[in-house]
Amino acid sequence: MTVQNLDMIQQNNLEIMYVHRSERNNSNWLHFKHAHPFAELFYITSGKGLFIIGEEEVEVSETDLIYIAPNAEHTELSKYDTPMEYFVIGLSGFTVKNKTHFTLPYLVIQDTKREYPFYFYKCFEEHTQNYEHHDQIIKNLISSFLLILQRENQLMIATEIPEINLKSTVLIKHYIDVNFKEDPSLEDLAKQFHMSKYYLSHQFKKDYGISPIKYWNTIRLENVKELLLSSNFSIAEISEMLSYTSQSYLTQVFKKSTGISPAQYRKNHWR
């Protein structure tokens, strides 16, 4: 893998995976640990929360900036009384190191400079409005932001030429892993990734051996099991939180998959 210092090259190696804004107005916010082969930059716009990165827990709040390295297992949780809202940008093609050249698995910068949010708001606007040349403008914004981050925090940020390119199916899988609690829709996935339903389904099954909707339903059921064993939520509450149409439908799907009802599963495996 070839690595070059950020201030010596252009943004050619940076690849923007997505720009999202997360707004949470209730406590039923489910996130489970996941990892992906690209980095993420979070900026907390309001509220408080907790990031779990590997085995470490880090409290965050408004104006905090969080960097998550590629392949670092992580999740984020919102505080019950102060729901957390944030921007997140997924991107590949760079690494973050400290002064001793150690590659950081994550970085939290608290109480950030006042100009930091501009870059996230502007990237989000360019992305959602689909302005002309928005891809290149977002790259320019991110490159400038990384340079400021490097200068003000004594970091070494370098762009890198990946050995392999990220496939679209990697991004689709990541999208499902993050949005598992929603009701699965192949049509919505196709719109999100600008593909035909047939092509998306074919490519996903080719790479992962399972259709995207079956994978989505499998992930959702695994999280039902996790909630049954790790929480006191009722089956009706779990059904609502994971977007099943009713408790009876969840019970039907669960029993078809496991051979027993959710209530019996909880009774048999309660920790």
UniProtKB/TrEMBL annotation:
Residue span, HTH araC/xylS-type domain: 170-268
SUPFAM superfamilies: Homeodomain-like (SSF46689), Regulatory protein AraC (SSF51215)
Molecular function in Gene Ontology: DNA-binding transcription factor activity; sequence-specific DNA binding
PROSITE patterns: HTH_ARAC_FAMILY_2 (PS01124)
InterPro entries registered for this protein in UniProt: Cupin_2 (IPR013096), Homeodomain-like_sf (IPR009057), HTH-like (IPR037923), HTH_AraC (IPR018060), RmlC-like_jellyroll (IPR014710)
Keywords, comma-separated and alphabetical: DNA-binding, Transcription, Transcription regulation
Pfam family, one: HTH_18
Protein name, UniProt field: HTH araC/xylS-type domain-containing protein
